[in-house]
Amino acid sequence: MSHAKDDEVFTSLFIQFSNRAERWMKRALLGLLAALCLFQLALRVPELRHFLSSADKHEGVQIHRNIGG
Predict the structure, then answer these.
(1) pLDDT tens digit string along 56-65?
(2) In 3D, which of 31, 64, 5, 12 has the Cα closest to residue 39?
(3) Superkingdom of the source (predicted)?
(4) Does residue 18 contact residue 26 with C-beta atoms inside 8 Å?
């Protein structure tokens, strides 16, 4: 009988732990997704791109396209 009670206690504790861990992981994932979106938007601003990425220094000459004409 004690074994069944121990199993119930363990299951209850595991469910509590997994719910907390799941909540933390969801928050972390949402935070990382928001940071990714913000950084991608920041990379579209030439003045900020210089500080965020060093890849532009290693690129060739920029291509200037004439759109619509």
Answers:
(1) 777 777 677 7
(2) 31
(3) Bacteria
(4) no
